[in-house]
From TrEMBL:
Coiled coil: none annotated. This is AhpC/TSA family protein. The keyword Mitochondrion does not apply. It comes from Blastopirellula retiformator. Residues 159-242 form the Alkyl hydroperoxide reductase subunit C/ Thiol specific antioxidant domain. GO terms for molecular function: antioxidant activity; oxidoreductase activity. The lineage of its organism: Bacteria, Pseudomonadati, Planctomycetota, Planctomycetia, Pirellulales.
């Protein structure tokens, strides 16, 4: 299992490069404003020279910020965010000025080197920081010896191993209650519950909420099922479920399915109530053993619960008969 993500080395070098670039550019604008304006084909009036030197000071200040952020990109992500906002607003302002005829097209080269080339690495740094924030202070920092399967209890005080000793249990790891796909999964389970139980399998729900939410589960006819609240994602981690990547959580496929499930399926979209980056999954667990599992490749995947149970319980039934 992975430990909390640490910034890869390239992030440090990108921020060092950005800081160095800004300091050099700022120094040039302060010390030689007339030469820079002449290269940009702008008349070097006294107000323009003073204004350009002020811009140079601001750019240099950003440079110091990037150098500080380079020491720990994830910890100092606000500095990167402020820098990215500036690098997005710069080209927007240039386009407005160009359309109004107040700036020559030669200014576009500044947007390329000052702003556009930094968009991708800065966005990647921010995404890494957001993902890191969803991994700290939870199970992904705990040692491998952590054993929540024997420690966590259901809302009515039972252990998972005790439930699975009587009959196989379909353990359904859900996302947060505000998630469109979590609501869809709850509806699917409610509709397929009788068939799953008729196949000789119980159902245990695991969710990332801080507290149990009987009203949510009651809506789908699942309020009497055993449920485990796992806000630290300890059980998720033990079963091999990870924090999602960008494509797993926000890719085009996820958006398309979200529109279908949220609008046409009537599941809507609620507020984030817990770790929204945790990936879901389902497992068949019996007598201390995982018989099979399904890990979502995308948050929008829709398992066929009844088919999964029947396919995996058939070998168990044969073994018992023998």
């Amino acid at each position: 299992m992975s430990q909390p993500d640490q910034p890869p080395p390239w992030m440090k070098y990108v921020l060092l490069a950005a800081g160095g670039y800004n300091l050099v550019w700022g120094a040039a604008a302060i010390l030689a404003p007339a030469a820079m304006l002449a290269w940009l084909q702008v008349e070097s009036t006294q107000p323009a020279l003073v204004f350009w030197q002020c811009i140079g000071m601001l750019v240099a200040v950003y440079g110091f910020g990037y150098l500080i952020a380079a020491s720990d990109p994830y910890r100092h992500w606000p500095l990167v965010l402020v820098g990215l906002i500036g690098k997005i607003l710069g080209p927007i302002g240039f386009l407005f000025a160009l359309s109004a005829g107040t700036l020559p097209s030669s200014f576009g080269w500044l947007n390329l080197t000052n702003d556009l080339i930094w968009w991708t690495p800065f966005v990647m740094i921010l995404w890494g920081a957001v993902r890191h924030l969803h991994m700290i202070d939870n199970a992904y920092e705990l040692p491998e010896a952590d054993d929540p399967i024997r420690e966590l209890r259901t809302h009515d005080g039972r252990r998972l191993d005790d439930l699975a000793s009587d009959r196989p249990q379909l353990i359904v790891f859900l996302r947060h209650a505000g998630c469109t796909f979590c609501r869809e999964a709850a509806q699917d389970l409610g509709a397929q519950r009788s068939e799953i139980e008729a196949a000789g399998c119980g159902i245990v729900l695991v969710h990332v909420g801080q507290e149990d939410d009987p009203e949510f589960f009651s809506k789908y006819g699942l309020d009497d099922l055993p449920r485990i609240s796992d806000p630290s994602c300890r059980l998720y981690r033990q079963f091999g479920l990870e924090i999602g990547t960008f494509s797993q959580l926000f890719g085009a496929r996820v958006w398309a399915r979200g529109i279908i499930a949220g609008i046409f399926g009537g599941h809507g979209l609620g507020l984030t109530r817990a770790n929204s980056f945790q990936m879901p999954g389902i497992y068949l667990y019996h007598c201390g053993q995982i018989l099979d599992g399904f890990q979502h490749e995308h948050a929008s995947d829709r398992p066929l619960y009844t088919e999964f149970v029947r396919r995996n319980l058939a070998p168990v039934d044969v073994a018992v008969a023998r």
